[in-house]
Design goal:
Layout: E1 4-9, H1 15-25, E2 31-38, H2 44-51, E3 56-58, H3 67-81, E4 85-88, H4 97-102, E5 107-111, H5 126-135, E6 139-146, E7 156-163, H6 170-193, E8 197-200, E9 203-206
Length: 208
Amino acid sequence: MNKLKLAILASGRGSNFEAILTNIQQKKLDAAVQIVISNNSKAGVLELARKNDIPAMHLSHRQFDSPEQFDEKLLSVLKECGANFIVLAGYMKLLSAKIIGAYRNRILNIHPALLPSFGGKGMYGIHVHEAVLAYGCKVTGVTVHLVDEKFDHGAPIIQRCVPVLSDDTPQTLAQRVLGVEHQVFTEALRLFAENRIEIRGRSAFIHQ
């Protein structure tokens, strides 16, 4: 793959985007952010992008008469900005089969648990950590995975464990997991930047 030219899709404040951008600026990741897109016009990630002179766009299904029109616009924007890789950094929408097909094996998502546990529809944000604690898990973690047509279903690239402490609340656990997210997202992107990922079927293999 040529140099990673990233399109960041996010719905919230953008802490994972900020961590990725910091690593790029510090020369720890050979990539460039071409555009930041959010389905939420008030998302902090858009302001963060603008402060760093990165094109930022609000793009929502609500702006279009059909899902197909949204897909056409999104693909057009991605092509115009030269993006060759998509990063879902807290993006709260399922991408269509058309978008996934156009960027097959070039879309990464991060999930705040060890998939396939605590994944799927409705398992996002604080809900994940509430479920982990309710189940009584002693260990949770982070999964960076390829995106396919189902929620939290694509091949894992990196998984990293995070201990669950006896006095954890959903909030304290979320904060500790987020710190690990900020590390492993860049690690996974670096593997792609260095052409060290091989996809075979539903599995991803890392070359040393």
